[in-house]
Amino acid sequence: MRKHRVLTLAFFLFAIVFSIVHVSGHTPLDIDGNGSTLETAIKVPYPTKTWTLYHEVHETGEPKFYELHIREGERLVVSLFTSLQEDPKFTPRLVVLGEGVEPRGMAPEFIESPPGYSVHVVDSTRPEAPEYDPFTPSSYFFYAEFRGEVSEGTYYVVVYEPDNVGSYGLALGYREVFTMYEWLIIPVNLFEIHLWEGQSPLIVFGPLLVAVAAGFWYINKRDVIIGVSMWLSLTGGLLFTGTAVNTFVQMVIAMAASGYTSASLLTIIFIALQAGLGYIVIRKALIDRRRTDLKSRAVVVGSGLLGMFVWAGVLIGPILVIASAVIQND
Length: 330
Fold this sequence. Notes:
Blueprint: H1 2-19, E1 27-28, E2 42-43, E3 51-57, E4 64-70, E5 75-83, E6 93-98, E7 118-122, E8 131-133, E9 138-149, E10 153-160, E11 166-172, H2 180-184, H3 186-196, H4 201-222, H5 227-258, H6 264-287, H7 294-309, H8 316-326
Parallel strand pairs: 1-3, 2-4
Antiparallel strand pairs: 3-11, 4-10, 5-9, 5-11, 6-7, 6-10, 8-9
Helix pairs in contact: 1-6, 4-5, 5-6, 5-8, 6-7, 7-8
């Protein structure tokens, strides 16, 4: 009965996550392109969709151009941020070029503008405190933001830093939509994002690996591992719980800088789902390891599928869990 209660709670929390997923979800976007001139501008597909691009300023005063085509009735939304680990002296600037923007300020001479385009220079300042992102989870310093309805046409967003080099993130769009692939691949993207932030690989991967190793050490002491199916199930379940540990560590790091925020509740729900599913899988592997009925397998498969959608086990864990149910035997 207790297993069913845990699984019911997991599905309930899962429903909550998808009912509030619009809070701040952005899809990482990896686009090839130089972007140093208008002609080589990085073209952003579907610019109203929420994207996040992670780039660097390699030379002071070097601009990076992004091209966006806005349709009638759509808004142009863009914000510029840096990670906690970035040098405070690094202050990226934001300029918007387009026929439908209100002229504001003077852009540096090295930023070329198409004929007939207006130039809108966005104020860029480092805030006193970073803003918490519950999905990553991370905290970022948001330096500049532009949002508003514009006429249909092609617009250019330009990022530059006149005095220093460093890394920045560019968040675009306002429609939080994800393809199945984009949602499932996020666990891998999260590792890349934390490395982009400047974190040590030991911090990025360490908690997950330590949790999995500690779990195997404890289980191995009990000498209960029987067969390939059980190995697969336990490995997947430990990856689930290891992901929860990793997410918790990143939340603590982020909130140590930003302070408590209600957005952390979403992160806590993810942690609870990841840990709860790990508990279900491990418990069934250890206690119900000889059950081969359809209902038992369905619970394991359901846990694996749900794990994919709450980013548990870095994709590998859910695959192992589902495989353990498929090949389960006495």
